[in-house]
Task: structure prediction
Amino acid sequence: MNEDRIPLLKGFQAQAKAMNRPTPLLDEFIRTYPEGVPNPGYTKIRANLFTRYEFSRGPLKGFYLGGGTNWRTRTFRGNADLNQDGVAEELWTPSYALFSVLAGFRTRLANRPTSIAVNIDNLLDREYYRANTNTTGSWGDPRIFKLTIVTDF
Result:
């Protein structure tokens, strides 16, 4: 949040004006950036929940399955005067949830512990936007398949 930042900037502005130094960019920033607004890229609530189960006996011994979700509430992007009425409106990126799954097998290859796994991130191939500020950000990754092989030497 910017509650701590705006008073600091206002103090700097007052000192500059006392020394007869103009601060047009700072004046414009303070005028259009209301107090109490989150910093761009700020997401208030996030949650991640993942689990994994490994079969320890029976015909599926060594196999494991897992999955989970990453959830984000809406993300503040910044302020902009979109309708050009002199008032900056808040810009937000919508909330989103991404799901991932995992399947793998643990065994021994050449007498070394080895695991082979397939991960699928963004399982539902959801389009989402990762916002940093009102002028920067990026589209999130599409569905991604990963094959990993890990062995101990």
About this structure: The CA atoms of residues 34 and 88 lie 8 Å apart.
